[in-house]
Design brief:
Non-ribosomal Peptide Synthetase Peptidyl Carrier Protein, Chain A, mainly alpha, single chain
């Protein structure tokens, strides 16, 4: 949840809504701080949650996420990082 006043960019807000809907979370998407960790402490997601997010992101945005990608820790480190990865992948 949000512990700062960081503003969500439009693409981050869309991704936050997708994550909240996909995982049936009981928090408003707009309260997610885009800089806190998604996994473990922070938003508190686990490995199954991350797999679900990877699947829905691949389906929604057409972005390929590989389980063995050495960059996954960075890609999924925060909402902002995941959003940036999606935007970069879609523009290349």
């Amino acid at each position: 949840m949000s512990t700062s006043t960081a503003m969500l960019l439009p693409e981050e807000a869309e991704l936050a809504r997708l994550i909240v809907e996909t995982l049936n979370m009981d928090i408003p998407a707009e309260t997610i701080d885009p800089k806190i960790p998604l996994y473990g402490t922070g938003l508190g997601l686990d490995s199954i949650d991350m797999l679900e997010i990877a699947l829905v992101v691949s389906q929604r945005y057409g972005v390929k996420l590989q389980a063995d990608d050495e960059n996954n820790t960075q890609i999924f480190s925060s909402l902002r990082s995941l959003s940036r990865f999606i935007q970069d992948s879609r523009s290349s």
